[in-house]
Amino acid sequence: MTDRTIGADEVARYLRNNPGFFEAHAELLAAITVPHPHGGRAISLHERQLEVLREKLRAHEMKLAELLRIGQENDAISEKLQRWTRQLLLAADPAQLPGLVVDGLRTAFSVPQVAMRLWALREAHLGLDCAQPVPVDVITLTNGMREPFCGPNSEFQAAGWLPEAGAGTRSIALLPLRKGVDPNAFGLIVLGSADPERFRSGMGTAFLERIAETASAALSRLAE
C-alpha cells in the first residue's frame, strides 16, 4: 500500500471546511512560516494575517478618503448651485436673466465657454442678444433631446455660438431648455471647453440636468 500525496487544493478545502482547525492546533500558527510580501524573509502565518489585515485597512482608508473628497466636491457644487439659483430668483427684470444664467455658468461653475439662444419668446424680449435667429435644424435637434448631451465637438451648428465660433472647442455639452413638461424646447445652452475630457461621452449628466431645470424655470418668464 502506498501513501497518497495530499494536494494543496485538498488542504485548502479541508481548512475552509474546518475553520476551527487552528483553534484546536494553535501551536501551528507560530510554527508555519510564509514569505514576507515585501521582502525575502520568512514570517509566521500569524504575522502574515496581520499584514493582510493592515493592507485591507489601508485600502479602506484610501477608499474613505476618496469618498470624503467626492462628498466635499459635491457640497461645494451644491452651494454654488444654490447661490446661482438665488441670484436668478432675485432678478426683478426678466431681461436680466439671460446674462445672469450665462455669467453664472462661466464664473460660478468655471465653464470656459458658454453660449445660449432662446426662441419662441414674448414680443417684448425679441430684441435680446440671446434671441438671435436659430437654424431650424438646431431647434429640431434640441426638441429631440430628453437629457443633456456631452461629447466631442463634432462640428455642431450650435458650437458656432461659442467664442471664436467654437474653433478651440474640443468637448461640448448641450442643455435643452423647456417650460415644465412641454416636449418642445424654447432654448439651448451650449457649454464648451478646450479640454476634450471636460464634457466627455458617457459622463454623468445629473448635475447638468439640474442646471438645465433651474435655467429653464428662470428663463420661462421670457417665453410665450
| Structural shape | elongated
Terminal Cα separation, in Å?
97 Å
Radius of gyration: 30 Å
Quickly give the CATH architecture of the largest domain. 2-Layer Sandwich
Strand content: 5-15%
Structural class: alpha+beta
Give the biggest beta sheet: 4 strands, antiparallel
Report the helical percentage. Answer: 40-55%
Q: Which topology of the largest domain does CATH recognise?
A: Beta-Lactamase
Order of helices and strands: HHHEEHHEHEEEH
| Number of individual domains | 2
Average pLDDT, all residues: 88
Labels describing this entry:
2 domains, Beta-Lactamase, 6 strands, elongated, 4-stranded antiparallel beta sheet, two-stranded antiparallel ribbon, 43% helix
Description:
The chain is α+β, with helices and mostly antiparallel strands and 224 residues long. It folds into 2 domains: 1-90; 94-219, GAF domain (Beta-Lactamase). It is built from 7 helices and 6 strands, in the order αααββααβαβββα. Helix 4 (45-89) packs parallel to helix 7. The longest helix has 45 residues, at 45-89. The mean pLDDT is 88.
